[in-house]
Amino acid sequence: MILAIFQRLRSSPTGLTALTGYAAMLSTLVVGLFSVPLALHFLTNEEFGLWSVVGQSLGYLLLLDFGVSWSASRMLVAPLREGNLEELESWWTVIVTVLCFQGLLVAGLGFAATDYIINFFKLSKELIPAAEILWGGMILINAIQLPFRAYTGILYCQDRWYVMHLISILTSWINLIAFAALLLAGYRTSAYLVASGLSIAANSLLMRHMVRKSGTRLRLSRRAFDFDKLRVLFRYSSGLFLLALAAQITFMTQSIIIGKVVGLGAVAAFVVSSKSLAVVMQLVKRAFESFSPRWMQLYVSGDKQEIWNQWRRLMAWLLPAGMMGALGILIFNRSFSMLYGGAENHVSRLFDLLLAGGLVAQVFINFTSFVFPISARIKGWCLAGLGDAVLQVVFGILFTRWYGSAGLLVGTLLGPLLVSVPYLLLKAPGELGISRRAMAGEVVRPYALTFAALIACFFILNTPAATPAGWWPSNIEFLLGFGLAALGVIWFCKFRVLFSGAKRVEI
């Protein structure tokens, strides 16, 4: 059965995207497990800190992309599918020109901010020359690489996103091997710069090669530049940028709120106890996101009904997977947090319940909002996302004052429940050409069952017998875990529907 599923996934672009997506996630985890201890062994604590903060600071500067590289796929998909070479050339010229300009902007602002960055972190005099080389080199490498991001849009609308995953796996290992070799050769912080340059160059050239290998020839032409397309591009990309920025702000403010209201000592427990949410969400999201390139093609071709049919069948097993993930967080987050971060770094059972509820809400939001980017109508969703973010921050501050870390999760739940979820139920069905009752009918029952199961498990777990002193799971936790495993067997049997007969989801 496992072999049959693997062969079925391997035989289609969507299946390959799912498989390579999980492989890329595993590769990132393994590379991280090697690179951090390696750096700590060869670098001083100050050099390691420089290595870390340069990467984080550069991430904020690269937000100047304004979502253009992610918008490329939606702008290019129609002319690429229609074989309209003139329209494709025009869009390609606009997108690459904008990315080149943004690359110059990143380089200019990055070099202008060099003294501020160096002085902000109060480095020792001995480390300042290395910091200047590292920061300047990374700015230059990423500015040059920015226009090559346009190739990701071509691969996406060709439904060849699995190529990107494979390239990312290869280049991450190129980075690690080069980093290790250069550290052994005594290059210290410069090892990060050279290794990053090699991996980014390999990534860019491989993307270009794979696009050209597909038979797609893309040319830049000054006469093909269209200012109307430029306005369309920025209307779309600015919405994506604001949504990403809102998500980043809400994520960043969580630790700030905890540190300010509760105290810095509570930040570690919050971060550790929240880790399981990120892990489970990534596991569930990878499967869903593999369908996005195909659905974008179907939407552009006008086949909304097929998108709805596939979404409905996909959610029939993906919602139970999210439900089991939420129950798993509630049952085992105490043990996971104490094992992962120490006995003092588990907040409470109430925190686990709210974390599980947050996963359930995010599953619906992430797996329904996809319709707005593919329809190129994201203004309303952008406003809803910003409103959601504001409410999360405001309610998070208020409830943290009253209930501590668990209160912050109450606040971050209220924002989506008051804004994002209602907006999606009202607007998403229209984009797919279905009734609101049809979409609600697909999600109300499983969500009602999920919340009922979470509440029941919470009361069972909220007893002294279910909460031993150490991290080892109690008998009650083991018993509930066996029940969850039984649900997993049922889910797996339902999962087989995807790979049998006419009812299977087209992948």
UniProtKB/TrEMBL annotation:
InterPro entries, per this entry?
A: Poly_Biosynth_Transport (IPR050833)
GO CC annotation: plasma membrane
Q: Does the keyword Repeat apply?
A: no
Q: How does it sit in the membrane?
A: Multi-pass membrane protein
User: What keywords tag this UniProt record?
Assistant: Cell membrane, Membrane, Transmembrane, Transmembrane helix
Its predominant location is: membrane
Tell me the compartments it is located in: Cell membrane
> Membrane-crossing residues?
21-42, 48-70, 91-113, 133-151, 163-185, 191-211, 232-251, 257-284, 314-333, 353-374, 381-400, 406-426, 447-466, 478-499
Q: Does the keyword Membrane apply?
A: yes
Q: What is this protein called?
A: Polysaccharide biosynthesis protein C-terminal domain-containing protein
